[in-house]
Design brief:
This protein is α+β, with helices and mostly antiparallel strands and 529 residues long. Helix content is 22%, strand content 39%. The chain has helices spanning 2-27, 33-39, 78-84, 148-167, 175-192, 197-206, 387-400, 410-424; strands spanning 74-75, 88-90, 92-108, 113-116, 122-127, 135-136, 141-146, 213-216, 221-226, 233-234, 241-244, 248-256, 268-272, 280-292, 298-306, 317-333, 338-339, 344-351, 354-366, 369-374, 381-383, 426-432, 439-448, 459-466, 477-487, 490-497, 501-511, 514-525. Helix 4 runs antiparallel to helix 5. The longest helix has 26 residues, at 2-27. It is elongated and about 150 Å long.
Protein backbone atom coordinates (compact mmCIF):
# COMPACT_ATOMS: atom_id res chain seq x y z
CA UNK A 1 0.00 0.00 0.00
CA UNK A 2 2.85 2.39 0.83
CA UNK A 3 4.60 1.54 -2.45
CA UNK A 4 1.46 2.39 -4.38
CA UNK A 5 1.15 5.80 -2.68
CA UNK A 6 4.80 6.63 -3.33
CA UNK A 7 4.51 5.64 -7.01
CA UNK A 8 1.40 7.78 -7.53
CA UNK A 9 3.01 10.80 -5.87
CA UNK A 10 6.06 10.54 -8.10
CA UNK A 11 3.86 10.49 -11.25
CA UNK A 12 2.00 13.62 -10.21
CA UNK A 13 5.22 15.40 -9.32
CA UNK A 14 6.56 14.63 -12.79
CA UNK A 15 3.44 16.05 -14.48
CA UNK A 16 3.65 19.25 -12.45
CA UNK A 17 7.33 19.67 -13.33
CA UNK A 18 6.69 19.26 -17.05
CA UNK A 19 3.84 21.84 -16.93
CA UNK A 20 6.05 24.29 -15.05
CA UNK A 21 8.80 23.91 -17.64
CA UNK A 22 6.40 24.55 -20.52
CA UNK A 23 5.04 27.69 -18.87
CA UNK A 24 8.57 28.93 -18.17
CA UNK A 25 9.69 28.61 -21.79
CA UNK A 26 6.52 30.28 -23.08
CA UNK A 27 6.52 33.23 -20.70
CA UNK A 28 10.24 33.95 -20.46
CA UNK A 29 11.50 37.25 -22.18
CA UNK A 30 13.17 37.02 -25.57
CA UNK A 31 16.94 37.04 -25.24
CA UNK A 32 18.63 39.81 -27.16
CA UNK A 33 21.86 37.95 -27.84
CA UNK A 34 20.45 36.31 -30.95
CA UNK A 35 19.45 39.66 -32.37
CA UNK A 36 22.82 41.14 -31.46
CA UNK A 37 24.61 38.23 -33.09
CA UNK A 38 22.55 38.43 -36.28
CA UNK A 39 22.92 42.20 -36.50
CA UNK A 40 26.70 42.08 -36.09
CA UNK A 41 27.16 41.28 -39.77
CA UNK A 42 24.63 43.91 -40.92
CA UNK A 43 25.40 47.50 -41.77
CA UNK A 44 24.93 49.77 -38.76
CA UNK A 45 21.93 52.15 -39.13
CA UNK A 46 21.30 55.33 -37.10
CA UNK A 47 18.59 55.06 -34.51
CA UNK A 48 16.56 57.95 -35.99
CA UNK A 49 17.11 56.92 -39.60
CA UNK A 50 13.92 56.86 -41.64
CA UNK A 51 13.09 54.82 -44.68
CA UNK A 52 15.27 54.86 -47.73
CA UNK A 53 14.70 57.77 -50.09
CA UNK A 54 13.13 55.48 -52.67
CA UNK A 55 10.83 53.81 -50.18
CA UNK A 56 7.18 54.81 -49.97
CA UNK A 57 5.26 54.21 -46.75
CA UNK A 58 1.47 54.18 -46.77
CA UNK A 59 -0.48 54.37 -43.55
CA UNK A 60 -2.95 51.51 -43.22
CA UNK A 61 -5.66 54.14 -42.50
CA UNK A 62 -4.72 56.35 -45.45
CA UNK A 63 -5.53 54.93 -48.93
CA UNK A 64 -3.09 55.67 -51.74
CA UNK A 65 -3.81 58.72 -53.80
CA UNK A 66 -5.35 57.92 -57.19
CA UNK A 67 -3.25 58.48 -60.22
CA UNK A 68 -4.12 61.60 -62.18
CA UNK A 69 -3.20 61.78 -65.83
CA UNK A 70 -2.62 65.23 -67.17
CA UNK A 71 -4.46 66.27 -70.29
CA UNK A 72 -2.46 66.84 -73.43
CA UNK A 73 -3.18 68.51 -76.78
CA UNK A 74 -4.18 65.98 -79.38
CA UNK A 75 -4.29 65.70 -83.13
CA UNK A 76 -7.24 63.98 -84.82
CA UNK A 77 -7.64 63.03 -88.43
CA UNK A 78 -10.75 64.20 -90.30
CA UNK A 79 -11.95 60.60 -90.40
CA UNK A 80 -11.52 60.25 -86.64
CA UNK A 81 -13.34 63.55 -85.97
CA UNK A 82 -16.22 62.46 -88.14
CA UNK A 83 -16.45 59.02 -86.53
CA UNK A 84 -16.77 60.39 -82.98
CA UNK A 85 -19.06 63.26 -84.02
CA UNK A 86 -16.92 66.32 -83.29
CA UNK A 87 -18.72 69.64 -83.77
CA UNK A 88 -17.37 73.14 -83.15
CA UNK A 89 -18.79 76.45 -81.96
CA UNK A 90 -17.65 79.97 -81.06
CA UNK A 91 -17.18 81.84 -77.80
CA UNK A 92 -19.34 84.96 -78.07
CA UNK A 93 -21.19 87.68 -76.18
CA UNK A 94 -24.96 87.43 -75.68
CA UNK A 95 -27.73 89.28 -73.93
CA UNK A 96 -28.77 86.76 -71.31
CA UNK A 97 -31.87 86.30 -69.25
CA UNK A 98 -31.80 83.58 -66.62
CA UNK A 99 -34.98 81.51 -66.66
CA UNK A 100 -35.81 80.13 -63.22
CA UNK A 101 -38.63 77.63 -63.25
CA UNK A 102 -40.71 76.99 -60.17
CA UNK A 103 -44.14 75.88 -59.08
CA UNK A 104 -46.66 78.09 -57.34
CA UNK A 105 -50.19 78.52 -56.10
CA UNK A 106 -52.70 81.27 -56.82
CA UNK A 107 -53.92 83.41 -53.93
CA UNK A 108 -56.17 86.46 -53.49
CA UNK A 109 -54.50 89.83 -53.81
CA UNK A 110 -54.97 91.18 -50.30
CA UNK A 111 -54.66 94.74 -51.56
CA UNK A 112 -57.88 94.26 -53.57
CA UNK A 113 -59.98 92.96 -50.67
CA UNK A 114 -62.95 95.13 -49.61
CA UNK A 115 -64.81 94.85 -46.30
CA UNK A 116 -68.45 95.83 -45.77
CA UNK A 117 -69.32 97.36 -42.36
CA UNK A 118 -71.76 99.96 -41.07
CA UNK A 119 -70.82 103.13 -39.18
CA UNK A 120 -73.79 102.99 -36.82
CA UNK A 121 -75.49 100.36 -34.68
CA UNK A 122 -78.70 98.79 -35.95
CA UNK A 123 -80.62 95.69 -37.02
CA UNK A 124 -80.43 93.89 -40.36
CA UNK A 125 -83.80 93.57 -42.06
CA UNK A 126 -83.34 91.94 -45.48
CA UNK A 127 -80.31 90.11 -46.94
CA UNK A 128 -79.92 89.97 -50.74
CA UNK A 129 -76.49 88.30 -51.06
CA UNK A 130 -76.72 85.34 -48.72
CA UNK A 131 -73.91 82.91 -49.70
CA UNK A 132 -70.14 82.89 -50.11
CA UNK A 133 -68.53 82.96 -53.57
CA UNK A 134 -71.51 84.76 -55.07
CA UNK A 135 -70.45 87.44 -57.51
CA UNK A 136 -71.51 90.96 -56.47
CA UNK A 137 -71.25 93.88 -58.87
CA UNK A 138 -70.34 97.35 -57.69
CA UNK A 139 -73.47 99.16 -56.49
CA UNK A 140 -75.52 95.97 -56.17
CA UNK A 141 -77.64 95.84 -52.92
CA UNK A 142 -76.30 93.53 -50.23
CA UNK A 143 -78.73 94.07 -47.31
CA UNK A 144 -80.96 96.63 -45.58
CA UNK A 145 -80.45 97.89 -42.04
CA UNK A 146 -82.67 99.73 -39.54
CA UNK A 147 -80.93 102.03 -37.05
CA UNK A 148 -82.75 104.21 -34.48
CA UNK A 149 -79.77 106.54 -34.37
CA UNK A 150 -79.84 106.93 -38.13
CA UNK A 151 -83.57 107.63 -38.18
CA UNK A 152 -83.13 110.27 -35.45
CA UNK A 153 -80.36 111.96 -37.41
CA UNK A 154 -82.50 111.93 -40.57
CA UNK A 155 -85.35 113.62 -38.67
CA UNK A 156 -82.94 116.26 -37.38
CA UNK A 157 -81.80 116.83 -40.93
CA UNK A 158 -85.35 117.21 -42.20
CA UNK A 159 -86.20 119.69 -39.41
CA UNK A 160 -83.04 121.65 -40.13
CA UNK A 161 -84.00 121.89 -43.81
CA UNK A 162 -87.51 123.08 -42.94
CA UNK A 163 -86.10 125.70 -40.57
CA UNK A 164 -83.66 126.82 -43.23
CA UNK A 165 -86.44 127.27 -45.76
CA UNK A 166 -88.64 129.13 -43.25
CA UNK A 167 -85.92 131.45 -41.99
CA UNK A 168 -84.12 132.02 -45.26
CA UNK A 169 -85.97 135.35 -45.74
CA UNK A 170 -85.54 136.54 -42.16
CA UNK A 171 -84.14 140.05 -41.80
CA UNK A 172 -82.72 139.35 -38.36
CA UNK A 173 -78.98 139.24 -38.48
CA UNK A 174 -77.59 135.62 -38.16
CA UNK A 175 -80.90 133.79 -38.19
CA UNK A 176 -80.79 132.61 -41.80
CA UNK A 177 -77.11 131.63 -41.63
CA UNK A 178 -77.65 129.74 -38.36
CA UNK A 179 -80.46 127.66 -39.86
CA UNK A 180 -78.29 126.88 -42.88
CA UNK A 181 -75.38 125.76 -40.68
CA UNK A 182 -77.68 123.40 -38.74
CA UNK A 183 -78.87 121.82 -41.96
CA UNK A 184 -75.28 121.42 -43.25
CA UNK A 185 -74.14 119.84 -39.96
CA UNK A 186 -76.93 117.25 -40.08
CA UNK A 187 -76.14 116.45 -43.69
CA UNK A 188 -72.44 116.12 -42.88
CA UNK A 189 -73.24 113.66 -40.09
CA UNK A 190 -75.17 111.47 -42.55
CA UNK A 191 -72.23 111.62 -44.97
CA UNK A 192 -69.82 110.48 -42.24
CA UNK A 193 -72.06 107.48 -41.65
CA UNK A 194 -71.59 106.71 -45.37
CA UNK A 195 -75.24 107.04 -46.26
CA UNK A 196 -75.31 106.62 -50.06
CA UNK A 197 -76.00 109.75 -52.10
CA UNK A 198 -78.97 108.02 -53.68
CA UNK A 199 -80.55 107.52 -50.25
CA UNK A 200 -79.75 111.11 -49.24
CA UNK A 201 -81.36 112.43 -52.41
CA UNK A 202 -84.40 110.25 -51.74
CA UNK A 203 -84.56 111.75 -48.22
CA UNK A 204 -84.54 115.28 -49.67
CA UNK A 205 -87.17 114.47 -52.28
CA UNK A 206 -89.66 112.69 -50.01
CA UNK A 207 -89.09 114.68 -46.83
CA UNK A 208 -89.61 111.50 -44.78
CA UNK A 209 -86.97 109.54 -42.83
CA UNK A 210 -85.76 106.26 -44.36
CA UNK A 211 -86.23 103.45 -41.89
CA UNK A 212 -84.59 100.66 -43.96
CA UNK A 213 -81.28 101.88 -45.40
CA UNK A 214 -79.90 99.80 -48.33
CA UNK A 215 -76.17 99.00 -48.23
CA UNK A 216 -74.56 98.38 -51.64
CA UNK A 217 -71.40 96.50 -52.66
CA UNK A 218 -68.42 98.88 -52.85
CA UNK A 219 -66.60 96.85 -55.59
CA UNK A 220 -67.21 94.10 -58.09
CA UNK A 221 -65.97 90.73 -56.90
CA UNK A 222 -66.66 87.47 -55.19
CA UNK A 223 -67.99 87.27 -51.63
CA UNK A 224 -65.38 85.31 -49.68
CA UNK A 225 -66.82 85.99 -46.21
CA UNK A 226 -70.51 86.38 -45.29
CA UNK A 227 -71.81 87.17 -41.77
CA UNK A 228 -75.01 89.15 -42.45
CA UNK A 229 -78.14 87.43 -41.11
CA UNK A 230 -81.70 88.77 -40.90
CA UNK A 231 -82.67 90.44 -37.58
CA UNK A 232 -79.04 90.38 -36.43
CA UNK A 233 -77.84 93.29 -34.33
CA UNK A 234 -74.74 94.87 -35.83
CA UNK A 235 -72.21 97.40 -34.62
CA UNK A 236 -69.50 99.36 -36.42
CA UNK A 237 -66.96 96.66 -35.45
CA UNK A 238 -68.99 93.87 -37.12
CA UNK A 239 -67.52 92.64 -40.43
CA UNK A 240 -70.51 91.66 -42.54
CA UNK A 241 -68.99 90.90 -45.97
CA UNK A 242 -65.53 90.43 -47.54
CA UNK A 243 -65.48 90.98 -51.30
CA UNK A 244 -62.42 89.97 -53.36
CA UNK A 245 -61.58 91.57 -56.69
CA UNK A 246 -59.93 88.78 -58.76
CA UNK A 247 -58.99 90.88 -61.78
CA UNK A 248 -55.47 90.74 -60.33
CA UNK A 249 -54.16 87.89 -58.18
CA UNK A 250 -51.08 86.91 -56.25
CA UNK A 251 -49.03 83.81 -57.02
CA UNK A 252 -46.65 82.41 -54.41
CA UNK A 253 -43.77 80.70 -56.26
CA UNK A 254 -41.55 78.20 -54.42
CA UNK A 255 -38.01 79.12 -55.53
CA UNK A 256 -34.93 77.22 -54.35
CA UNK A 257 -32.70 79.30 -52.12
CA UNK A 258 -29.76 78.91 -54.55
CA UNK A 259 -31.69 80.86 -57.23
CA UNK A 260 -33.08 83.65 -55.07
CA UNK A 261 -29.94 85.79 -55.43
CA UNK A 262 -30.63 86.26 -59.15
CA UNK A 263 -34.13 87.66 -58.62
CA UNK A 264 -35.30 91.14 -57.71
CA UNK A 265 -38.68 92.90 -57.47
CA UNK A 266 -39.94 94.04 -60.85
CA UNK A 267 -38.55 91.12 -62.90
CA UNK A 268 -40.91 89.78 -65.53
CA UNK A 269 -42.79 86.54 -64.93
CA UNK A 270 -44.79 84.18 -67.15
CA UNK A 271 -47.41 81.80 -65.75
CA UNK A 272 -48.83 78.71 -67.45
CA UNK A 273 -51.63 76.47 -66.22
CA UNK A 274 -52.39 72.92 -67.29
CA UNK A 275 -56.09 73.81 -67.39
CA UNK A 276 -55.48 76.28 -70.26
CA UNK A 277 -52.94 74.78 -72.69
CA UNK A 278 -51.17 77.39 -74.78
CA UNK A 279 -52.36 80.26 -72.56
CA UNK A 280 -49.74 82.45 -70.86
CA UNK A 281 -50.37 84.96 -68.08
CA UNK A 282 -47.92 87.81 -67.53
CA UNK A 283 -46.87 89.67 -64.40
CA UNK A 284 -43.98 90.81 -62.23
CA UNK A 285 -42.21 89.92 -59.01
CA UNK A 286 -43.76 91.89 -56.16
CA UNK A 287 -41.71 90.75 -53.17
CA UNK A 288 -39.24 88.06 -52.11
CA UNK A 289 -40.46 86.99 -48.69
CA UNK A 290 -37.74 86.90 -45.99
CA UNK A 291 -38.12 83.30 -44.85
CA UNK A 292 -36.87 79.88 -45.99
CA UNK A 293 -38.98 76.76 -45.68
CA UNK A 294 -36.88 74.40 -43.53
CA UNK A 295 -38.42 71.27 -45.07
CA UNK A 296 -38.05 72.12 -48.78
CA UNK A 297 -35.26 74.77 -48.61
CA UNK A 298 -37.33 77.07 -50.79
CA UNK A 299 -38.25 80.74 -50.53
CA UNK A 300 -41.72 82.09 -51.30
CA UNK A 301 -41.66 84.75 -54.00
CA UNK A 302 -44.85 86.76 -54.39
CA UNK A 303 -45.88 87.50 -57.96
CA UNK A 304 -48.54 89.94 -59.17
CA UNK A 305 -50.41 88.50 -62.17
CA UNK A 306 -53.13 90.10 -64.26
CA UNK A 307 -56.15 87.82 -64.49
CA UNK A 308 -58.23 88.66 -67.56
CA UNK A 309 -61.44 86.69 -67.71
CA UNK A 310 -60.87 85.54 -64.11
CA UNK A 311 -59.28 82.32 -65.36
CA UNK A 312 -56.91 81.99 -62.42
CA UNK A 313 -58.69 80.72 -59.33
CA UNK A 314 -57.36 80.97 -55.74
CA UNK A 315 -55.65 77.73 -54.77
CA UNK A 316 -54.87 76.75 -58.38
CA UNK A 317 -51.52 75.07 -59.07
CA UNK A 318 -49.44 76.89 -61.72
CA UNK A 319 -46.02 76.73 -63.39
CA UNK A 320 -43.85 79.84 -63.07
CA UNK A 321 -41.09 81.03 -65.39
CA UNK A 322 -39.18 83.84 -63.68
CA UNK A 323 -36.92 85.82 -66.00
CA UNK A 324 -33.90 87.59 -64.52
CA UNK A 325 -31.91 89.75 -66.97
CA UNK A 326 -28.15 89.17 -66.70
CA UNK A 327 -27.01 91.71 -69.29
CA UNK A 328 -24.35 91.16 -71.94
CA UNK A 329 -22.14 88.22 -70.99
CA UNK A 330 -19.39 86.10 -72.56
CA UNK A 331 -20.87 82.62 -72.94
CA UNK A 332 -20.17 79.12 -74.23
CA UNK A 333 -22.73 76.43 -75.03
CA UNK A 334 -23.43 74.10 -72.13
CA UNK A 335 -22.58 71.13 -74.38
CA UNK A 336 -19.02 72.48 -74.74
CA UNK A 337 -18.29 72.23 -71.00
CA UNK A 338 -16.75 69.04 -69.61
CA UNK A 339 -17.29 68.71 -65.86
CA UNK A 340 -14.56 66.59 -64.22
CA UNK A 341 -15.84 66.96 -60.68
CA UNK A 342 -12.89 69.09 -59.58
CA UNK A 343 -12.56 71.46 -62.51
CA UNK A 344 -14.31 72.61 -65.67
CA UNK A 345 -12.75 72.06 -69.09
CA UNK A 346 -13.37 73.39 -72.58
CA UNK A 347 -11.59 71.98 -75.64
CA UNK A 348 -10.18 74.65 -77.97
CA UNK A 349 -10.16 73.83 -81.66
CA UNK A 350 -7.00 75.15 -83.31
CA UNK A 351 -7.87 73.99 -86.81
CA UNK A 352 -6.81 71.02 -88.95
CA UNK A 353 -7.72 68.52 -86.22
CA UNK A 354 -5.67 70.16 -83.47
CA UNK A 355 -7.55 70.21 -80.13
CA UNK A 356 -6.24 71.64 -76.85
CA UNK A 357 -7.91 71.22 -73.41
CA UNK A 358 -8.39 74.48 -71.49
CA UNK A 359 -9.39 74.88 -67.84
CA UNK A 360 -11.97 77.64 -67.36
CA UNK A 361 -13.92 79.34 -64.59
CA UNK A 362 -17.66 79.46 -65.27
CA UNK A 363 -20.52 81.38 -63.72
CA UNK A 364 -24.21 80.61 -63.67
CA UNK A 365 -26.04 78.71 -66.39
CA UNK A 366 -28.62 80.61 -68.41
CA UNK A 367 -30.67 78.30 -70.58
CA UNK A 368 -28.31 76.38 -72.88
CA UNK A 369 -25.28 78.59 -72.13
CA UNK A 370 -22.72 79.05 -69.36
CA UNK A 371 -21.33 82.45 -68.41
CA UNK A 372 -17.52 82.52 -68.78
CA UNK A 373 -15.71 84.29 -65.94
CA UNK A 374 -12.12 83.38 -66.80
CA UNK A 375 -10.10 81.39 -69.31
CA UNK A 376 -11.65 82.19 -72.71
CA UNK A 377 -11.86 85.08 -75.15
CA UNK A 378 -14.43 86.01 -77.72
CA UNK A 379 -14.31 84.43 -81.21
CA UNK A 380 -12.31 81.40 -80.02
CA UNK A 381 -13.30 78.11 -81.64
CA UNK A 382 -14.38 75.38 -79.22
CA UNK A 383 -15.61 71.79 -79.45
CA UNK A 384 -19.31 71.49 -78.63
CA UNK A 385 -19.82 67.71 -78.85
CA UNK A 386 -18.03 64.39 -78.18
CA UNK A 387 -16.20 65.97 -75.21
CA UNK A 388 -16.04 62.73 -73.24
CA UNK A 389 -14.35 60.85 -76.08
CA UNK A 390 -11.93 63.73 -76.64
CA UNK A 391 -11.10 63.76 -72.92
CA UNK A 392 -10.32 60.04 -73.03
CA UNK A 393 -8.19 60.51 -76.14
CA UNK A 394 -6.30 63.40 -74.52
CA UNK A 395 -5.57 61.39 -71.37
CA UNK A 396 -4.42 58.44 -73.48
CA UNK A 397 -1.98 60.58 -75.43
CA UNK A 398 -0.76 62.19 -72.22
CA UNK A 399 -0.13 58.76 -70.70
CA UNK A 400 1.66 57.61 -73.85
CA UNK A 401 3.85 60.70 -73.72
CA UNK A 402 4.73 60.21 -70.06
CA UNK A 403 7.10 57.28 -70.72
CA UNK A 404 10.78 57.99 -69.93
CA UNK A 405 13.10 58.43 -72.94
CA UNK A 406 15.42 55.49 -73.76
CA UNK A 407 19.04 55.57 -72.60
CA UNK A 408 21.74 57.00 -74.87
CA UNK A 409 22.53 54.72 -77.77
CA UNK A 410 19.29 52.83 -77.48
CA UNK A 411 17.88 54.64 -80.49
CA UNK A 412 20.55 53.30 -82.82
CA UNK A 413 20.11 49.79 -81.51
CA UNK A 414 16.35 50.07 -81.84
CA UNK A 415 16.62 51.33 -85.39
CA UNK A 416 18.87 48.42 -86.29
CA UNK A 417 16.45 45.95 -84.69
CA UNK A 418 13.46 47.53 -86.46
CA UNK A 419 15.30 47.53 -89.72
CA UNK A 420 16.18 43.86 -89.40
CA UNK A 421 12.72 43.05 -88.10
CA UNK A 422 11.07 44.76 -91.00
CA UNK A 423 13.16 42.66 -93.30
CA UNK A 424 12.37 39.43 -91.45
CA UNK A 425 8.57 39.47 -90.76
CA UNK A 426 5.29 41.22 -91.43
CA UNK A 427 2.40 41.35 -88.89
CA UNK A 428 -1.27 41.27 -89.87
CA UNK A 429 -3.60 41.66 -86.85
CA UNK A 430 -7.34 40.82 -86.81
CA UNK A 431 -10.02 40.31 -84.14
CA UNK A 432 -13.23 38.32 -83.77
CA UNK A 433 -15.67 40.06 -83.50
CA UNK A 434 -14.58 43.00 -85.61
CA UNK A 435 -14.63 45.62 -84.16
CA UNK A 436 -13.77 44.07 -80.79
CA UNK A 437 -16.10 44.52 -77.85
CA UNK A 438 -15.90 44.78 -74.09
CA UNK A 439 -15.44 41.26 -72.70
CA UNK A 440 -14.18 38.10 -74.40
CA UNK A 441 -12.55 38.41 -77.85
CA UNK A 442 -10.41 36.26 -80.14
CA UNK A 443 -7.18 37.78 -81.47
CA UNK A 444 -5.30 36.51 -84.56
CA UNK A 445 -1.92 37.43 -86.00
CA UNK A 446 -0.72 36.37 -89.45
CA UNK A 447 3.09 36.29 -89.46
CA UNK A 448 4.76 36.24 -92.88
CA UNK A 449 8.27 36.76 -94.15
CA UNK A 450 9.67 39.11 -96.76
CA UNK A 451 8.45 36.90 -99.60
CA UNK A 452 5.01 36.52 -97.92
CA UNK A 453 5.99 33.06 -96.73
CA UNK A 454 4.31 32.04 -93.43
CA UNK A 455 6.55 31.91 -90.37
CA UNK A 456 5.85 29.12 -87.89
CA UNK A 457 7.28 28.33 -84.48
CA UNK A 458 7.43 31.93 -83.28
CA UNK A 459 6.34 33.36 -79.94
CA UNK A 460 3.70 36.08 -80.45
CA UNK A 461 2.66 38.28 -77.51
CA UNK A 462 -0.08 40.95 -77.40
CA UNK A 463 0.11 43.71 -74.75
CA UNK A 464 -3.02 45.86 -74.22
CA UNK A 465 -2.89 49.16 -72.28
CA UNK A 466 -5.46 51.87 -71.45
CA UNK A 467 -4.45 55.02 -69.56
CA UNK A 468 -6.09 56.01 -66.29
CA UNK A 469 -9.19 58.24 -66.42
CA UNK A 470 -9.46 59.94 -63.01
CA UNK A 471 -12.54 61.91 -64.06
CA UNK A 472 -14.42 58.62 -64.35
CA UNK A 473 -12.79 57.08 -61.28
CA UNK A 474 -10.96 54.49 -63.46
CA UNK A 475 -7.34 53.44 -63.04
CA UNK A 476 -4.95 52.32 -65.75
CA UNK A 477 -5.67 48.87 -67.24
CA UNK A 478 -3.29 46.43 -68.95
CA UNK A 479 -3.51 42.85 -70.24
CA UNK A 480 -1.11 40.42 -71.93
CA UNK A 481 -2.24 37.62 -74.29
CA UNK A 482 0.12 34.88 -75.49
CA UNK A 483 -0.99 33.57 -78.90
CA UNK A 484 -0.70 29.91 -79.88
CA UNK A 485 0.71 28.69 -83.15
CA UNK A 486 -2.11 27.34 -85.33
CA UNK A 487 0.15 26.49 -88.26
CA UNK A 488 0.72 28.13 -91.62
CA UNK A 489 1.94 31.34 -89.92
CA UNK A 490 -1.37 31.89 -88.05
CA UNK A 491 -1.33 32.62 -84.29
CA UNK A 492 -4.49 32.80 -82.21
CA UNK A 493 -5.46 33.53 -78.61
CA UNK A 494 -8.35 34.67 -76.42
CA UNK A 495 -8.56 37.57 -73.99
CA UNK A 496 -11.13 39.64 -72.10
CA UNK A 497 -11.05 43.43 -72.37
CA UNK A 498 -12.25 45.16 -69.20
CA UNK A 499 -13.67 48.30 -70.82
CA UNK A 500 -14.71 49.87 -74.05
CA UNK A 501 -12.73 52.77 -75.50
CA UNK A 502 -9.35 53.16 -77.17
CA UNK A 503 -6.61 50.66 -76.23
CA UNK A 504 -2.91 50.75 -77.12
CA UNK A 505 -1.80 47.39 -78.51
CA UNK A 506 1.83 46.27 -78.84
CA UNK A 507 2.46 43.07 -80.88
CA UNK A 508 5.82 41.35 -80.43
CA UNK A 509 6.98 38.32 -82.48
CA UNK A 510 10.14 36.46 -81.38
CA UNK A 511 11.88 33.31 -82.57
CA UNK A 512 14.98 31.68 -81.16
CA UNK A 513 15.53 34.63 -78.79
CA UNK A 514 15.51 37.14 -81.66
CA UNK A 515 12.78 39.71 -82.25
CA UNK A 516 11.28 39.17 -85.68
CA UNK A 517 8.88 42.12 -85.65
CA UNK A 518 7.05 44.57 -83.39
CA UNK A 519 3.98 46.60 -84.17
CA UNK A 520 2.01 49.26 -82.24
CA UNK A 521 -1.56 50.24 -83.04
CA UNK A 522 -4.72 51.66 -81.46
CA UNK A 523 -7.75 49.49 -81.05
CA UNK A 524 -11.27 50.96 -80.67
CA UNK A 525 -13.38 48.68 -78.46
CA UNK A 526 -17.17 48.93 -78.28
CA UNK A 527 -19.41 48.26 -75.28
CA UNK A 528 -18.96 51.37 -73.12
CA UNK A 529 -17.00 51.81 -69.93
Amino acid sequence: MNKYIVRTSLVWLGIVAVAAAVLYFRLRPVHLSAFTHSAANAETQPVAAGPAPSAEILSPMQPPKPETTALAPLQLTPERMQSIGVKTGTVEYKQLSADIRATGTVDIDEQLLSYVQVRFPGYIRKVFVNATYLYARKGEPLFTVYSPDLVATEQEYLLARQSQQALSKSTVDGVASGAASLSAAAEQRLAQWEVPQSELQKLKDTGKPITDLTINSPVSGYVTEYNALPNMYVEPSTRLYTVADLSRVWVYAQVFQDDVGRLKPGDAVEITVDAYPGRTFHGNIDQILPQVDLATRTVRVRLVIQNPGLKLKPGMFVNCDLKSPLGRQLVVPASAVFQTGTKQLVFLYKGEGSIEPKEVLLGSQAGDDFVVLKGLQTHQQIVTSANFLIDSESQLQAAAGSFLPPPPGAGNAASQINASSAAQANIDFTTDPDPPRKGANTFRVKLTGAAHAPIAGASVTLTFYMAAMPTMGMGAMSMTVQLKDQGNGLYEGNGSLGSGGTWQVTITAQKNGQTLATKQLRLDVTGGM
